[in-house]
Task: structure prediction
Amino acid sequence: MSKLPGNAGVSVLGDKSVEFYRDPVSFCRQRIEKHRSGVFQSRLLNRPTAFICSVKGTRELLCEKSNVFLKDPTDLMTNMYGDTIVTTNGEEACLLRLSLMSLFTGSCLESSNDYITSVCERCLKDLSLSVWSACVFLSGQPECVYSAFKRLGTELVLGLFLNVRAEEQPELYQEISQLCTQHWHGLISAPVNVKVPLWSSGFSTALDARDKLMDIIKDKLEHDKQGFVGSLGSLPLPDSSSASQHLLLFISALIPKALASLLTSFTLALSGNEQMRRRAMEEPDYLRRVLLEVQRLWPPFIGGRRIADQDSTLAGFDVPKGYGAIYISHAVHRDPEVFQQPDSFLPERWSGRNAGQEHFLCAFGSGPRGCIGNKLTDVFLKEACMYLLKHYDWHLDPPSQDLDYKWLPVSRPANPPTVSFTRLDQTRSDRNDTS
Ligand code: HEM
Result:
């Protein structure tokens, strides 16, 4: 076995976290080119870390060697979300997954269908109006698709997981979504808990928001016996705080952001391409391929991190015990050994050369610690995309925009992209009027 290309530098001074978090894609691209290798080492979060940018290395990390490369219990997530499945290992993680998975599969998943349909209809039905009114009459600001889809994602999450629906309890809904945003900002602000009169650090505001959210969640778990909250409350879980802690995780602002990221990328990829939109609407399998290509090119999360529990290897390179290992979905999905013309949007690759290789993608992780919400996400995305395809024509407005992506905290164009939607029934009736 050989030494990982690159070097992990000295403690603190050699740390590359700032450079990585500023632009993770360029960080990896430069090193892949320099070392001519899809696996290299550097120093991240002051820990020597193997960066895995190839399909083969990621399969080993997440699947074959998942008992060697473990979740980090001191991960930043623990600060804000407490002990959840995300940072647990071993038997406890297996049992938690077994319990929680039942909420996201089978009859529980099926019982979400009606709500998913209704929330898509409610939030997407006025897209043509809202763009027009937001652009021209109300704020003078064109509406950004990402923001519109984030509102949809938030309505989905709060309605489904907490039984709080925007149209039924608008004040409570507003309060919770604001608290979720404040709580989320704690994840991306320095962990300094300072409060003085009239000012408190972002982190301390986040902790206050977390406490308020926990009060609401506990009240729901105690009194609501219906829906997801009811099912979660009756699951066998390791301790009494586990249900509330996980509900806090599920309603986190991160999930609406990830959903909005994928819907935004879908909308942009198909904007102005009427032929592709029509085909995606008529052929469910073509829509499936389009969505695979969307998650391949624009995975919402940059990747996931593990710690080596013993000396091991990845893609033929030594990875000593204590090393971090991070898979970079953006780079894995462009691994030229697996994906020809890796930067091109080619849905047909999934019925040709890459047919049956969906498991090489890692937008939802992979293996025994893969995402437990991926089926729910799939149902939701298909419903939202079908609604858009059936009801709208859309194009970039203005037609020329800088669509360069940023990759953190979720992938999306750094400048908010704006799109004009025209209702298809409207276009048809206009055509009929003039004929
Ligand atoms: C676009 C939507 C989503 C994306 C892109 C996404 C992505 C991911 C990824 C990449 C991982 C693996 C992280 C790693 O390897 O360290 C993961 C894990 C997880 N996801 Fe998702 N996810 C999404 C939606 C959801 C939803 C809707 C839920 C549930 C409400 C959910 C719950 C989880 C949980 C609990 C884990 C941890 C599993 C474990 O550690 O065993 N996700 N997700």
